[in-house]
Amino acid sequence: MQTIYLDNAASTRVDPVVVKAMEPYFSEKYGNASNLHHKGREAKEALEWARKIITKRINAKQNEIIFTGSGTEANNLALKGIAFANKDKGKHIITTKIEHDCVLNSCKWLEKQGFSVTYLNVDEEGFVNLEELERAIRADTILVSIIHGNNEIGTIQDIKEIGKICKEHNVYFHTDACQSFTKVPINVKKQNIDLMTLNAHKIHGPKGVGALFIKKGVKIEPILHGGGHEFGLRSSTENVAGIVGFAKAVQLANENHVKYMIKLRDKLIDGVLKIPDVKLNGSREKRLCNNTNFSFKYVEGEAIGALLDAKGICSSTGSACSAKSLEPSHVLLAIGLKPEEAHGSLRLTVSRFTTEQEIDYVLEILPGIIKKLRKISPFAKFISKL
Ligand SMILES: Cc1ncc(COP(=O)(O)O)c(C=O)c1O
Questions:
Q1: Would you give the DSSP letter of residue 320?
Q2: 210: Cα within 13 Å, side-chain hemisphere
Q3: What's the 240 CA to ligand 1 centre distance in angstroms?
Q4: What is the CA radius of gyration of the chain?
Q5: Whose CA is nearest to atom 16 of ligand 1?
Q6: Can you list the pairs that 163-170 forms with residues at least 24 positions away whose Cβ atoms lie under 8 Å?
Q7: Ligand 1-lining residues (CB < 6 angstroms)
Q8: The ligand 1 atom nearest the CA atom of 102
Q9: Which atom of ligand 1 is nearest to the CA of 73?
Q10: Span 71-97, mean pLDDT?
Q11: Given 102, 289, 314, 321, which residue is catalytic?
């Protein structure tokens, strides 16, 4: 059976060019980047090459990113590291109700350590209200952490305006850009970003590699203590092969890929919206180029996903992390969906490897799947009255 992979917000296929770039760092260039001998220097050079590629892409200085073991780790470091380094200034953090679980659960943990957290509401398309954000800032606020491109509904926040507000109030601004990096232009200087989380596996790089941009001068404590790697902020021998793969993936990602994904995304949205009783979640305009998310009335997203899978199509009913949970998605609830609407949701996310024929195939079979499920739905009687 042919696979049609439409779960690229969960993870992506590693580009074969990336695999090739990584290979020597397993077999030949296996040195530890901390060592002074030639094998160590070889690894260190690769590490600094990668740092240069990634910092250039976001307009940062070369010593302003540290590599981590994942996006989750980078988000944990940003939140906990800023909280503990700045607790004398204040113990209040602002975030939103639509963050990735690694941000939300770090915030919940910080609440147990005596910090207080404001979780901002969003509107029905997933946007933060900037006036509400400004009103939430207090004298003891030390950090605002707001996701750039949402992993479930694809909504892109106006991080430039958020950065401006944070700067005016002298509060650090962190953004989780795991989903938006290379898809939406990011300029940390122009957008007033103090900290930003990135990772490799959403952009055709390897899993288990992330990075945290930390603007020069930002006060932050490490959460991993050891040999003082990564400017003393993330001890542990660097994953050189993974980091090289990350930088290669960044080098490969370009504007044409974004345009191509927009074309596929829009075709998918227009096609799926022809099915009766379906709505698009998130914004039509300010949306990640690879993301679609729909709610189908009277059916369960899980059931749609299972029938699509039987045809070789990989989809998702929420974020990958909550795929095992039957709780309705916190993001969909935050944009005002009722639990039953959230349960009827399906996320289809494309990549530059997705073909137009694959989208055509999905559009050909999805209406039949929905019809079939609605026929056996407990709400069937109700539908017939419509
Ligand atoms: C927005 C966002 N932040 C953070 C993460 C976590 O990244 P990682 O899988 O590298 O830990 C993800 C991935 O699921 C994500 O989509």
A1: G
A2: 22
A3: 20
A4: 22
A5: 151
A6: 163/191, 163/192, 163/193, 164/192, 165/130, 165/133, 165/134, 165/137, 166/137, 166/192, 166/194, 167/192, 169/134, 169/137, 169/141
A7: 70-72, 75, 100, 102, 147, 151, 176, 178-179, 199, 201, 210, 320
A8: 4
A9: 11
A10: 98
A11: 321
Structure tokens at 149: 């491109």
Q: How confident is the model at residue 1 (pLDDT cuts 50, 70, 90)?
A: confident
Question: How far is the CA of 23 from the CAs of 47, 171, 371, in angstroms?
Answer: 15, 42, 47
Which residues on neighbouring strands pair with residue 5, listed in sequence order? 314
Average pLDDT over residues 115-133: 98
> How many whole angstroms from 367 Cα to the centroid of ligand 1?
31
- Pocket test of ligand 1: the residue of 76, 77, 102 to mutate, having most ligand atoms within 8 Å of its CB, is 102
CATH superfamily of 4-12+254-377: Aspartate Aminotransferase, domain 1 (3.90.1150.10)
Is 178 labeled as catalytic in the residue annotation? no
Residue nearest atom 5 in ligand 1 by C-alpha distance: 71
Residue to substitute in 199, 239, 291 for testing ligand 1 pocket (most ligand atoms within 8 angstroms of CB): 199
In 10 A of CB 53, how many CB atoms?
A: 17
Rounded average pLDDT over 241-257: 98
Give phi and psi for 40, each to the nearest 5: -70, -40
What residue ranges do the domains of the chain occupy? Answer: 4-12+254-377, 16-252
Kindly indicate the confidence band of residue 320, based on its pLDDT and cuts at 50, 70 and 90.
Answer: very low
Average pLDDT on 231-244 reads: 98
Question: Given the CA of residue 207, which atom of ligand 1 is nearest to it?
Answer: 10
User: Residue 162, SS3?
Assistant: helix
Matching CATH number, 16-252, of 1.10.3720.10, 3.40.640.10, 3.90.1150.10, 3.90.76.10: 3.40.640.10
Q: Give percent of the chain above pLDDT 90.
A: 94
Residue nearest to atom 13 of ligand 1 (CA): 10
Total residue count of the chain as it appears in this document: 386
Could you tell me which of 102, 97, 159 has the C-alpha nearest to residue 126? 97
Q: In the numeric block, which tokens belong to residue 197?
A: 């989380």
Protein residue with its CA nearest to atom 7 in ligand 1: 71
